[in-house]
Specification:
The complex is a heterodimer of chains A (334) and B (204). Chain A contains 15 helices and nine strands. Chain A has 334 residues and is α/β, with parallel strands linked by helices. Chain A has a domain of 216 residues: Alpha-Beta Barrel (TIM Barrel), CATH 3.20.20. In chain A, strands 1-4-5-6-7-8-9 form a seven-stranded parallel beta sheet, sandwiched between helices. In chain A, strands 2-3 form a two-stranded antiparallel sheet. Chain B has a single domain, classed as Rossmann fold. Helix content of chain B is 44%, strand content 20%. Chain B contains eight helices and seven strands; from the N terminus they run βαβαβαβαβααβαβα. The longest helix of chain B has 15 residues. In chain B, 50% of the residues are buried. Classes of the chains: A alpha/beta (334), B alpha/beta (204). At the A-B interface, β3, α8, α10 and α13 of A face α3, α4 and α6 of B.
Chain lengths: 334, 204
């Protein structure tokens, strides 16, 4: 079986042994950037560089995917938010939204030509390039933000959180419109050639959002988005999500991704044996800061605790040592 | 180098406090670095930076648990090899969970010769009841307060004595172990106590 076949089989709900080691979130790493001479801040805005950076993680380390984009600002920028790419700052900094652009639902204006709005064409260009080069061998992933997380990118956060309580109807209308955007962007990415899409709803984390608020405010929109997205879809929420994991399972995704804060054994117990679970080693403490000897056991522990596929708990932190990437990919070789 | 985190919900006065602390501590002869999510939002212009010898660094955006975590580690390493400040004041986004930021810094502490100072969480004395009553916010605000080593009741100059007492009681109830300080960057009340906590408290 090719790596792509392994991943796609898993996302259909079939058991794959040994489980694939891949991701649906950022997978750009410095050893690849350095080897290919790619400047991080440029890779977000150039389709060829983005494809090389994402594809390099597969080509250099046999990571079983190539995922784009790398930052969390693509949809916001397409809607008119202004980005800071830190071109003049030393070091590796992820782009941020510099100027928000939404106060009311009417401010969410979906460009008629969304395919060519902001950096959407950069992402689709990267997908197409990777598809052409190695699309038969390895699965190509793309991600979109969940509605509440996207709202946090286009609105002032205090307004979002406070108005969610004081005027839920207003926020509901905004989330509805943003859901339309997310569905369309997901379709654009699939049409470009992405094999699977991850819906990243970090804003719904139980670290900051009560389960009650998640259920009333976010879950209905996430369910709608997933029902209208091209499949397969993975739903990821950061933080310890065991309090809402059954709600996540009810959202209808093909797989659930959980981060390192989840006690995975408890997650498995709560969702039962039939939900595809992906996770959940710590990409910073284990892969970035850990020793190579610690990486393999951390990966194996994910399986012991109930994961069907090995994912990092969040984006790969780019400054990961090459030997740790290699150790991760050799976890099942003994 | 000693790291101190200044956390708390949006609008609680973190940035104002960070600037005040930066000026006071650097005025006393210490080297200070300030790490923020968005440098553009910090009202520290070049003159102030030069006059007070402050280093201001951006830890950028992204998901707090990974993208910002990595940025933070990278910046701490650079500071430990370069400027070597006496104090590093971290002001994460107002939506950040302080323990998540602390969890990132702790493993680095031993390797980079860093001392973990206190997490100082600001609670807006005038707004806390409202924030704790919002279903969409109470968890975040409570978690932030529970993670605090010091709870600074901000803007005490603008509320009544009764309101201040209510805020103190709420802070003690949510986090009985935290040191609670009344703070006003306008009148300077509490600033010496916050600085003393920064200097004296070492968190294991």
């Amino acid at each position: 079986m090719t790596s792509k076949e392994r991943v796609m089989k898993l996302l259909k709900g079939e058991k794959v042994s040994p489980p694939p080691i891949f991701s649906g979130m950022g997978n750009v790493v410095v050893p690849v950037l350095d080897k290919y001479g790619i400047v991080f801040s440029r890779a977000h805005r150039d389709a060829e560089l983005m494809a090389k950076a994402a594809g390099g993680t597969y080509k250099e380390f046999c990571f079983e995917c190539a995922v784009v984009p790398f930052d969390l600002g693509v949809e916001a920028e397409a809607l008119g938010a202004k980005m800071n790419y830190y071109d003049d700052v030393e070091g590796l900094l992820y782009p941020t939204v510099q100027e928000k652009c939404v106060k009311v639902a009417e401010d969410v204006v979906i460009p008629a030509d969304l395919e060519n709005a902001g950096r959407i064409p950069v992402v689709t260009g990267a997908i197409k390039a990777m598809k052409k080069e190695f699309g038969e061998e390895v699965a190509i992933g793309a991600y979109v933000l969940g509605p509440f997380t996207l709202a946090g990118q286009v609105m002032e956060l205090d307004e979002l959180y406070e108005e969610s309580f004081l005027d839920p109807e207003k926020i509901g209308k905004i989330l509805e419109r943003l859901s339309d955007v997310i569905i369309r962007v997901a379709k654009i990415y699939r049409d470009a050639g992405a094999d699977y899409i991850t819906l990243r709803e970090m804003g719904g984390t139980s670290d900051v959002m009560s389960p009650k608020s998640f259920r009333s405010l976010i879950k209905p929109h996430v369910m709608r988005i997933i029902s209208e997205m091209p499949r397969p879809v993975v739903l990821h929420i950061c933080g310890d999500t065991n309090a809402i994991i059954q709600d996540m399972a009810e959202c209808g995704a093909d797989a659930l991704s959980v981060d390192q804060k989840n006690k995975l054994a408890e997650t498995r117990q709560k969702v039962g044996p039939n939900v595809v679970l992906l996770g959940n080693f710590d990409p910073v403490k284990v892969l970035h800061k850990g020793n190579p000897a610690d990486v393999g056991p951390a990966v194996l522990e994910c399986i012991t605790n109930g994961a069907d596929g090995i994912w990092p708990g969040c984006d790969l932190w780019p400054e990961v040592p090459a030997e740790n990437m290699s150790a991760m990919m050799k976890a099942f070789s003994k | 180098m000693k790291i101190v985190q200044i956390a708390g919900y949006l609008g609680s006065g973190k940035t104002t406090l960070v600037i005040a602390l930066g000026k006071e501590i650097s005025g006393a002869g210490y080297k200070v670095a300030i790490l923020v999510n968005e440098v553009g939002e910090v009202p520290v212009d070049g003159k102030v930076i030069q006059e007070f010898g402050l280093t201001v660094k951006d830890i950028g955006g992204g998901c707090i648990c990974c993208q910002v975590a990595g940025n933070l580690l990278h910046t701490l390493k650079a500071l430990s090899m370069g400027v070597k400040p006496d104090f590093i004041i971290i002001e994460p986004t107002g939506m950040a969970v302080p323990n998540a930021v602390r969890d990132v810094m702790k493993p680095a502490a031993g390797k980079l010769d860093l001392t973990m100072g206190p997490t100082i969480v600001l609670l807006d004395t005038g707004r806390f009841e409202k924030l704790l009553s919002y279903e969409t916010l109470k968890r975040l605000v409570s978690v932030q307060l529970k993670d605090a080593d010091v709870i600074a009741l901000s803007k005490v100059d603008s509320v009544s004595a009764e309101q201040r007492l209510k805020a103190e009681a709420a802070a003690h109830e949510i986090n009985p172990a935290a040191r609670v300080i009344g703070l006003s960057t306008f009148t300077k009340e509490g600033v010496p106590e916050v600085i003393a906590a920064m200097k004296d408290m070492v968190i294991a």
